[in-house]
Amino acid sequence: MNEAAKSSKTAAFDVVIVLGAAVWAGGKPSPTLLRRTRHGAALVLAGVAPVLMVTGGLGVHPPAEALVMRDIAVAEGLGDDAIVIEDTASDTVASGRTCRALMRSRGWSRALIVTDDFHLPRSLMIFRWLGFAVKGSAPAVSADGPGWLNRAYYWLRELVALPWTALRLLIGGQRN
Fold first, then answer.
1. Beta pairing, strands 52-55 & 28-29
2. DSSP states of 69-119
3. Residue boundaries of the structural domains of the chain
4. Global pTM?
5. CA–CA dist 81, 37 (Å, integer)
6. How far apart are alpha carbons 120 and 144 in whole angstroms?
7. Could you give the CA distance from residue 174 to residue 126 in angstroms, rounded to a whole number?
8. Which residue in 49, 67, 52, 175 sits closest to 102, CA to CA?
9. What is the per-residue pLDDT across 6-15, written as a single tens digit (0 to 9) for each?
10. Distance CA 41, CA 153 (A)
11. Cα torsion through 144, 52, 153, 89, rounded to 10
12. How many angstroms separate the CA atoms of 26 and 125, rounded?
């Protein structure tokens, strides 16, 4: 039995899934992407799960978010064998659906979702709708993180996005 299989028996989760954020010009990670990915890598290194899944497709600037996230996770000390890359999703619902397929193909059902605190309620709703036992973890907001005005905007945006996403999920079907 390999090390990942052994540790998955004792870990609280099968996988830590980090949701993407913007990649800036020149392939530079946004502070949000960097903060989320470092938090996810730290959780895996602490033994919360044996594997880190990074999800996020190509945004305004290449490369895909997940590819930048993989490089961050490796720099934080994770080996490539502990990282699963999902580099096609264009939004949180798409991340949920593509991660669901990857999880099912590996027999996983327990995931810890990493994203910012304002994004967690909607993200958890999506993954639970898709049939998985999930919990969430948000990185601490650092002094170099978004200011209170930006955070207020993000919370308001999520307040609008939550019912819209619920409607998308209901109309789109594919629950389990």
1. unpaired
2. HHHHHHHTT--GGGEEEE----SHHHHHHHHHHHHHHHT--EEEEE--TTT
3. 13-172
4. 0.86
5. 16
6. 20
7. 11
8. 52
9. 445 578 999 9
10. 27
11. 130
12. 33
